[in-house]
Write a structure and sequence with these properties.
Number of strands: 3
Number of helices: 13
Number of domains: 3
Strand content: under 5%
Radius of gyration: 22 Å
Order of helices and strands: EHHEEHHHHHHHHHHH
CATH superfamily of the largest domain: Antibiotic binding domain of TipA-like multidrug resistance regulators
Largest sheet: 3 strands, antiparallel
CATH topology of the largest domain: Globin-like
Structural class: mainly alpha
Amino acid sequence: MDWSIQEIAKIAGTTSRTLRHYDDIGLLKPSRTGHNGYRYYDGPALVQLQRILLLRELGLGLPAITEVLDRETDTVKALSSHLEWLAQEQDRLTRQIASVRQTIDTMKGDGKYMAHNMFDGFDHTQYKDEVEERWGKDAYAASDSWWRGMHAEEKQQWKDRVQKLGADWISAADSGVSPDSAEAQDLARRHVEWLSGIPGTPTAAPGGDVKGYVTGLGEMYVADPRFAANYGGESGATFVRDALRVYAEKNL
């Protein structure tokens, strides 16, 4: 049994144009092509598409997705790992929903707030030990105090800025521009300016080794999959690293 490209586009919430592009770049081949030139997809092709869409939701660019699919050939194992991550995210979101719902009920009711319940699922201290190991306790304390001192609107603005920067990096990497291009170097400038706004980092401290810090972060983006995912995977993170290195050599 198979489905036409139009049927799959509708079912998957994507477009025929996107599916044709995936075919053109070798990411998702149709199981057959009809006499009318229409593409058709069978069950295994649908599984491949599901994996692609899941990885896109993680923020990976198409080159990174290709790398992952080529590397993780055991589909059941790969989907099982992704399912585990989704379950963790579901649990975190469920706890956030419950805590916000409780806050609303409290505001409508007796007004007796339970602080230990209000922030379940919002743990920004999960990397505390790692940050202290990498950059010291003072660095973590300064950044933690800065974050806790923000209003909700300020925190959201900061998150939006981070997301926009990451999306722009991915877009630039996918476009094929070189790390020393004007576009990439403008992103590197924005990246360093963003880092400079975070207390506890060398970019925010007078006399800090800004150049070493920026280039070191670039290396970490490539080496650590958690950070690489923010830039579309290893290839995107490599682009960011190289652009930051060029910027650091010229400006820091």
